[in-house]
């Protein structure tokens, strides 16, 4: 009898059901008379003639939707409590467009600061220029592998010299580590090294 159509229930009642076990009830929603088994009445069921009447008349279907304010445009709109619980944070948005417009950069809960200043286009161009000037060789040990570009004046404290080619010096990783956190102690000597032109001579192996 589960999920059968009305026609099947009528056929079952006519052919196999015992009429004395069925009684008539009046739908609480639309007032229509319908037949139902006594057991459903004993269970406190059989109040509605159909699913549509049951859903529209059941107290459990009446949901309250609180009024919230869109964080982006300020519009007031209703939002079910279940949707509010699913929120990331306590902000509400009336549309996907408002959510996207608001959740940029610092406003997004996964924002970690974005691209580092050293990786911006100006920094990339500066690094290439220093490597080209130094013929892609370490200015201390003359190695040509694992190269890094060192800021003679520290990157974080001398913003006006940050992207000057004269403030850069090509070093290998091993040599570079010796100057870290002690940049100001070696400014003069490194500036002198950077000012000396580089000549690379290739010698045929014997």
Describe the structure.
It is a single chain. With 206 residues, this protein is of the alpha+beta class. The chain has 3 domains: 6-59, no CATH class; 67-104, no CATH class; 117-195, no CATH class. 30% of the residues lie in helices and 13% in strands. The protein has 8 helices and 6 strands, in the order αββααββαααββαα. The strands form 3 sheets. The chain has a two-stranded antiparallel sheet with strand order 1-2. It has a two-stranded antiparallel ribbon with strand order 3-4. A two-stranded antiparallel sheet has the order 5-6. A hairpin with a 6-residue loop joins strand 3 (67-69) and strand 4 (76-78). It is rod-shaped. It starts with 5 loop residues before the first helix and ends in an 11-residue tail after the last helix. The mean pLDDT is 81.
Helix content: 25-40%
Shape: rod-shaped
**Cα-to-Cα separation, first versus last residue:** 98 Å
Number of helices: 8
Order of helices and strands: HEEHHEEHHHEEHH
The biggest sheet amounts to: 2 strands, antiparallel
Strand content: 5-15%
Number of beta strands: 6
What is the overall pLDDT average?
81
Uncertain runs with pLDDT below 50, 5 residues or more?
Answer: none
The whole-angstrom Rg is: 39 Å
Helix/strand-derived category reads alpha+beta
Main sheet: which strands, in order across?
Answer: 1-2
Number of domains: 3
